[in-house]
Amino acid sequence: MTAVAARAPAPAPARNRAGTYLYVTAGTLASILFLLPLAWALLRSFMPDSLVTQAPAGTDFSHLTTGNYSGLISTNDILRYALNSLLVAAGTAVLTAVVATMAGYGFARFRFRGSGIVFALVIATLMVPFQALLTPLFLEMHTLGLTNSLLGLALFYTTFNLPFGVFVMRNTFLQIPWELSEAAAVDGASTLRTLVSVLRPLVVPGIATTVLYAFLFSWTEFVGALTFLTSSNLYTLPLALLNMEYGSVGQVNFGYLEAGAVIAMIPCVLLYIGLQRFYIRGLMSGVVKG
């Protein structure tokens, strides 16, 4: 019997190793470019106000203090404003995800006359800046009694996050084989039961993308909150930071501002890290041709 000598695997070409090194080096440099401003902002938030506005020096590290954070909590009630922002952002994210999921499922699974036109109109609203609609929306919400309300602000944000959410969820549902829905229908499952029990685990990446986009938008949005909120106890974090900058009789405490900016970054960073793997997969659903 003829034995075939097993050949040892050929070593990786030098070109491949060089490409790997280049990839790792570029990724490391890009990470440093993104993380360095965050680290610098975090460091400055622990500096006294007198050092924040000065040129950086090596001795700054010996004057680090938590006075900015304690001052924000004790004198500026920053936690209440952060809670207001968190309630609005979380409510917007949840409501947007629920409505966008149902609408995306409808556009992906049900064909009706004019469905393409309706979906095109939904996507077309992405090109309309919400600042152009502030006046009519303010009048409408004032008539409904939703101005100066965190609920009204969440509904306002949900309205402008829905087009993107519907787009993502429709393309996410288009990736799922139609046979799954048919099999569930044969077993006697209703449309809602199919959506909740069968398809929901498969569309988590799209839901995560919608939640993250809606949360970040409403957490950092300023113009809408300035327009619809008039009571200071309902202010969101961006409004509170603006008052902190201009409401101190011409004297600005930049240490407080740096600490407030770091507090504003924390939920965004944590949410993005937690949903990152779903977020990337959810964005890839947008390349599917519907």
Question: What does this entry show, briefly?
Answer:
The protein contains 13 helices and no strands. With 290 residues, the protein is mostly helical. The radius of gyration is 25 Å and the shape is globular.
Which features would summarize this protein structure in a list?
globular; about 290 residues; about 70% helix; mainly alpha
Mean pLDDT: 81
* Total strand segments: 0
Tell me what portion of residues adopts beta-strand conformation: under 5%
Distance between the termini: 57 Å
Task: Please tell me what the overall shape is.
Answer: globular
- Describe the main β-sheet briefly: none
Backbone structural class: mainly alpha
Structure description:
With 290 residues, this protein is an all-alpha fold. 70% of the residues lie in helices and 0% in strands. The protein is built from 13 helices and no strands. It has helices spanning 14-45, 49-52, 67-75, 78-109, 115-124, 134-143, 150-174, 178-186, 191-199, 204-220, 223-228, 237-246, 254-284. The longest helix is centred in the N-terminal third of the chain and has 32 residues, at 14-45. The radius of gyration is 25 Å and the shape is globular. It starts with 13 loop residues before the first helix and ends in a 6-residue tail after the last helix. Residues 1-5 and 286-290 have low confidence and may be disordered.
